Amino acid sequence: MTRCGHIDGPMNKKITPFVENATEAAAACLFTMVQGNILALTMAHWLIASQTGFFAGVIAAAAIIFAKINRPWIISLVLGMATAVVDFVIHAGSFGPLFLEAAITGLGAAVLSFLVGKALRGLRSLRAAST
Question: Where are the domains of the chain?
C-alpha cells in the first residue's frame, strides 16, 4: 500500500474495473428509475440500484478481465449489456414495454462508462505528462 492507502500492483488492476463498472451501472439505474427526477429517489431506489450496480459490475469486470478486453468502447458495450440484463432480472420496468427501462438503463451505463473512461484516461495522461 502507498502512503495514501491506495493499493498498488496487480490487485488494483482487478479491483478498479469492478468499482468503476458497479458505480456507473448503479448511477445509470438510479437516474433511469426516477426518470431523471432525483428528488424522487427513495431508499428502495438506492437498494435496487446498488444490487444492479454490484451484479452488473461483477459480470462486466469478469468478462473484461477474462477476455482481456482493453478497447474502451467494447468495455462500455459489455457494461451496458450486463446492466440491461441485470436490471431486467432484478426489477420490473416502471415505464413503457417490458424491457424498455432495462434497455435505457443499459444504454445509460454504456454512455456513462465511455465518458467517464475517456475523462479518466485524459487525467492519467495529463498526470503522466507532468511527472
Answer: 10-130
